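Retro notes - structure team

What went well: the batch runner handled both jobs without manual restarts.
What didn't: labels got mixed up in the shared folder, which is why I'm recording both outputs here explicitly, each with its sequence directly above its tokens.

Job 1
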Amino acid sequence: MTMFLTILAGVPTTVLITVAALGIGMLGGIPFVLGRRSRFRSIRIVSRLLIEVLRGIPPLIWLFLIFFGFGASMTWMSALMASVFGLGLISCAYMAEIYRGGLSAISAGQWEAAEALGMSHRSVLAKVIGPQVFRVSIPAAATYGIGLLKDSSVVFTIGVTDIMFRANNQSHQTSDALTPFLIAGFVYIIITIPCAWGSRSLDANLKKRVAR
């Protein structure tokens, strides 16, 4: 029981990193997707290149580059901050692609109808297209968020005291090297299942409102 409670104590850190990184991604993904849809070819190329680089390099490498590389000269950057920043950058790229898929699902006729009413391009995005993209993107964003929660386990490699860090410590401190990781896996399941149910419920409620 003591081992379970010790590992469970890492949940707040894991959830904090996941929520913060996803929040950065949800906001940071907007300029990325707008860049992908820019009328200027150079901006489209740069945006796509940044997205591919952020997605192409494994999260663990990003964490090492940020914490042991750039963060080495920044005494104020803790392992927790480096984790949030690194996973947040990656989230920006993934959320941009999710938003792009949401934009593709919106009929072109809605753009034309809004512009015919004299609305500016910015107003169309903010008041007509944006809310619909948000609703359409929720299932994919929720799925990514659950994956991000599990992928955040790599932060233990730079010393963040999350679920995996505590499980790893327990495996070294006891003669049982397997049980701590089984407990950690069980804790991740406890967290992710309610998240999946919640995302499906939210998506269903939004669909009902749209249907009205």
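Job 2
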Amino acid sequence: MTGYAQVKSQVNDGNAFTLSLKSVNHRFLDPQLRLPAEMESLDVKIRRILKERLARGHVEITLMVERRDGEGFELNRSLVAGYVAAFRKAATDFGAPGEPDLNVILRIPGALVAAAAPDGDFEAAVLAGLEQAIAKLNVMREEEGRGMEAELRRRLESLEQATQEVAKLRSAVSRAYMEKVRARMQELVGNMEEDRILQEAAILAERSDIQEELVRLETHIKHFHSLLDEGGEAGKKLDFLLQELNREANTLLSKTSGVAGEGLRITELGLLMKSEIEKCREQVQNIE
């Protein structure tokens, strides 16, 4: 589920920070942290909090620290002193006039180093800000979730109506299959193949009834509704139910293939079911 939240705060020592959270859809929890080098000690703590508060999503966490004037960097005195001494020695040895250029010196890798990590109070403030940011993020995610829930319920209602219509057509399809069995048996009786007659009758009789599929479809739909009503972390359970619904729709289509009349209408309804199920699965992939 998607969302964005940002928290800005200033600590008593004058240092400040900005913490940003951005979440996009993902099957699992995938945190990506961008922390200043001096704050890397917070990595494990931030990941633990995210794991406790979020279940799914690609979450990007960006922490920017704003220090008091003059506290952002410290001078690496030994490195700079060594460079200046080497410069002046070279100037003396070769008789080349000039003085070291400070702008050049400060661009030497390592001449400026990040200030020491903030104290425990600052880290505590950052973690508290993280809790606030997650709360804001979840408000956005919950709002998106309500929209997804409404969409799923509409799809589910369409699926339920299709199932009920198929149930009404069941008896007509059964009669059509019986006629098919009767005609096939009459054809085979002329050849006196009793074993073949029994085999054909058993196969067609097994395919003639879709009651079992209808019962399972209705059961799965009711379970789906109950999971939506309960709320909480249900994404994986809903995805599993949709897989089961799709399996029953496939079986229903397989059993009614080749039957004219009402069988064609059941085929249309079965394809409608599969379409609604697939659209639901696209939504459920984004739900915790």
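One thing worth noting from job 2: The first strand starts at residue 3 and ends at 10.
We'll revisit the folder naming next retro.
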